[in-house]
Amino acid sequence: MIVEMRIYHCAPGRLPALHDRFRNITLAFFDKYGIKQIGFWTTVVGTSNHALTYMLQWESLAEREQKWNAFQSDQEWLAKRLATEAEQPIVERIENHFLSPTDYSALR
Q: Ranges for the NIPSNAP domain (predicted)?
């Protein structure tokens, strides 16, 4: 198992728009492509409270490449994402990490 941790750093004041896009658009596309989410978190204490962190679970990097690429090239997704940013961008920067659990991790 591989866990992908993604951190979306939003433009000031745009975190609610990102929540709305995940809640009402993105998660349906994740379901469509079999992308399994572990969870979503906002930052309570840290360098910025304009961030959304989420984790996805993959069986392999090959599975991630196939499913993520299909999702990212979906024309309906691209159109809906563009519409949510028609007036101003939502995400300024994305951090991406691929994590492998240790043999003593509760999540393996």
A: 3-105
Q: What percent of the chain has pLDDT over 70?
A: 100
Q: What is the pTM of this model?
A: 0.91
Q: Which residue reads 């728009």 in tokens?
A: 17
For the domain that residue 69 is a member of, what is the CATH number? 3.30.70.100
98-108 CB burial, b ≥16 within 10 A, e <16: eeeeeeeeeee
- The answer to whether residue 106 is domain-embedded is no
Give the count of domains, the chain: 1
* Strand-strand pairing, 91-99 and 36-42: unpaired
